[in-house]
Pyridine nucleotide-disulfide oxidoreductase
Amino acid sequence: MSDSIQAGIVIIGAGQAGVQTAESLRAGGYAGSITLLGDEPHGPYHRPPLSKAWLAGEMDGAQLVMRAPEMLARKQIELRTEVKVASIDRAAQQVLLADGSALPYSGLVLATGSTPRSLPLPGGNAAGVHALRSREDADAIAQRLALCLQQQRPVVVIGGGFIGLEVAATARKKGQDVTVLEAAPRLLGRVLAPALSDWYAELHRSHGVKLVFDARIEALETDSDHAVSGVRLVDGSLLPAGLVVVGIGVHANDGLAQAAGLECERGIVVDACGRSSDPAIVAAGDCTARRLADGSLIRLESVQNATEQGKSAAAALLGQERPFTATPWFWSDQYDKKLQMAGLSGGAEAWAIRGNMGGDMAGASFSIYHFRAGKLIAVDSVNAAKDHLQARKLLDAGLSPSPEQAADLGFDLGSLLK
Ligand SMILES: Cc1cc2nc3c(=O)[nH]c(=O)nc-3n(C[C@H](O)[C@H](O)[C@H](O)COP(=O)(O)OP(=O)(O)OC[C@H]3O[C@@H](n4cnc5c(N)ncnc54)[C@H](O)[C@@H]3O)c2cc1C
């Protein structure tokens, strides 16, 4: 592939992964043309603040910008916004744009992100029902939040995952009446240990959020203007609502790849270097499902994943091997608590808690160490940044304290790294 890349690289998706791939190509010495295509009206911007500081109105537009178009231009990366790719012609090595024009490529990067799942229920499309992915979504939610506050109408969040809980925390901070409906028996059940799920439930309750577990929703009620007015549960109860935020997960944007015949399974299947089933095409970020050495697939939706896969994908286009093998990490901000997660805790058999988790919630600072077969596999830290950074180093190095050492504040975990 490296012989033919002089003809130009096209990147579909001007988000975290697309920008990283473009910049890594330049940093890696690629001198051909790079065209970064994005279907949004904005240049690249940060998504994480959309449910946090941006939604709270604590950030200005300049802070949301990931890369100014001028900065990309200085690196000779051609950014084209409001351009939607309609299909990929692999045989002719060109992408077809929605306006009917074609753009040839020698190397193609798919960095198309993901789309929030919609609520397949009556009333799911009513005005005042929002998912949160884009800047427009966040602005619409902020506008509706202000209206609800003015009219003293409650907010219902469907889904107790990270985005739903961050929106709930932001809305509560503004004084909104907030209820979170979660279909499972606990919050963040797929990613947190039960003890941490319970701790987060307590955190939200202590801030006045109402939580409903095992929630079964029948329909969203609407008023005569087809705007949402409430959420009806199957047990017959009705929760009035002027705003419903739906945070029930995402699906990978792999439609273009599927239509082009690339291998897809819950996302565009890539190897650790971001290579797809077509040697001229790499993929990075939320749109991918990465094949691990044991043959299983992993889907991650995080800034780190988009960044690391972007670097790997760029290297692959340059004919180099740069597998993404670093420990996965993620963060979430709710109220004044920063959760930082390192590693993947699925399959943990034992846990150790380090620090102050019980009692005083305001002063909480702790980490939960997850073990499988006696080996450290993940660490979730709350307001404990030092633990998190150390955990990433331990996990990257394959080092493991015993559960007793992890729980003992008198034991210096850093000594394991020396
Ligand atoms: C509200 C919110 C909060 C988050 N908080 C955190 C957090 O705290 N920590 C964390 O690690 N992660 C967080 N994430 C996740 C993180 O933002 C994503 O994992 C990351 O943005 C993925 O980057 P990406 O480049 O794969 O996708 P995106 O950033 O979504 O970029 C993909 C781009 O491709 C465009 N596109 C798609 N199809 C086409 C097409 N056919 N033609 C042209 N363009 C197309 C899309 O419109 C989009 O602009 C959050 C996400 C959201 C929405």
